[in-house]
Write a structure and sequence with these properties.
single chain, 145 residues, mainly alpha, 3-stranded antiparallel β-sheet, 6 helices, globular
Length: 145
């Protein structure tokens, strides 16, 4: 949620297939297209969450593909449950997500961030402008010049 500014409602919809490795062994997470590389410390936590999923011993979740299986058959963890867990850690989800997204658009063009993380480009462009981003002259489709 905090690394890639994703809302709880999107995080709980992740499946095991959304976590992968590329040919170099880099861990990737599919939030947009193409999948996004995951940095070292977080990659280890993500792989551990994938390997040690909770709520897998009930009859309703034996074959669940959700990264965060819920209590109801065929459903992921409810997004409010995840948001409550984050809030219990003392983290304001909305404020933290906005701060993370602002930081991301300072590091790369808003259009690239939008595509990679599944955001609308007007959202990332607006946040880049508000944050004082310097990628305004980026030409996403013309790399020959």
């Amino acid at each position: 949620m905090l690394l890639y500014a994703q809302p709880a409602s999107r995080i709980v919809r992740l499946t095991l297939d959304d976590i992968a490795h590329d040919s170099d062994g880099q861990v990737l997470i599919r939030l947009g297209d193409p999948p996004t590389p995951v940095p070292g410390p977080f990659a280890e936590l993500l792989l551990r969450a994938k390997a040690e999923r909770t709520n897998m011993n009930t009859a309703t979740n034996v074959d669940a593909r959700w990264l965060f299986p819920g209590r109801r058959a065929g459903q992921p963890l409810h997004h409010r449950s995840l948001a409550d867990l984050v809030r219990d850690l003392g983290i304001s989800g909305q404020a933290a997500r906005t701060a993370a997204l602002r930081q991301l658009v300072l590091q790369a063009p808003a259009l690239v961030i939008a595509q990679a993380l599944g955001f609308h480009d007007t959202t990332t462009t607006r946040l880049a402008s508000e944050a004082g981003g310097t990628w305004s002259r980026y030409a996403p489709n013309d790399h020959a010049q």
